[in-house]
Specification:
Layout: H1 4-9, E1 14-19, H2 25-37, E2 40-43, H3 52-61, E3 77-87, E4 90-91, H4 93-101, E5 109-116, H5 124-133, E6 137-145, H6 152-167
Parallel strand pairs: 1-2, 1-3, 3-5, 5-6
Antiparallel strand pairs: 3-4
Helix pairs in contact: 2-6
Length: 176
């Protein structure tokens, strides 16, 4: 019979929400996802001050971000839910860099949730292909659009709908 402590320590089916947020909108989405899925959420922290010029240059030239070491070992988490703003129709440079620089993501089930000012559904396939090219097991790419004009309550309602429509299977029993 397995020792009970070993069972408690095994988070292999525990989701983890990882996010980058410059304006707070992606953080609101990540926090709501983590609360509804009963899991942790951890930020990607850039070492740089990211303003519009940095964003423009990063996106035009596919520049990598300089990041603080990630604060969590990913070994025991699956799936991983990555929340990223969209800048110039692409994943933000901090999230692109994170996906490229963490080989322990390979073999994990990955869901990517993007936040954008306008509709991005036509770009979901390109985002999935980018992540798959990095060796990631992409299970879905979803977008929450119109974020700049949405309140915290609007974003939380969007997350609730996203989970009900696409991520119900990730919700812990009793929270569905």
């Amino acid at each position: 019979e397995p020792h009970p402590v070993a069972i408690v320590a095994d988070n292999s089916s525990q989701p983890l929400v990882i996010y980058y947020s410059r304006t707070g909108k992606a953080q609101t989405v990540a926090t709501a996802l983590a609360r509804r899925l009963s899991c942790d959420h951890v930020p990607i922290v850039s070492k740089r001050s990211i303003g519009i010029m940095t964003i423009t240059l990063d996106q035009l030239f596919n520049r990598d971000d300089a990041q603080e070491p990630f604060s969590r070992s990913l070994g025991h988490y699956n799936p991983l839910i990555i929340v990223s703003p969209i800048w110039f129709m692409k994943l933000s440079s901090p999230v692109r860099t994170f996906l490229q620089q963490h080989p322990e993501l390979r073999g994990k089930d990955i869901y990517i949730i993007t936040t954008s000012g306008g509709p991005m559904e036509r770009k979901n396939q390109a985002i999935a292909e980018f992540a798959k090219a990095k060796g990631l097991n992409v299970r879905g790419v979803f977008n929450i659009s119109g974020v700049m004009r949405k309140t915290k309550e609007d974003l939380e309602a969007d997350v609730k709908m996203l989970i009900e429509k696409n991520l119900q299977h990730l919700a812990a029993p009793g929270t569905r």
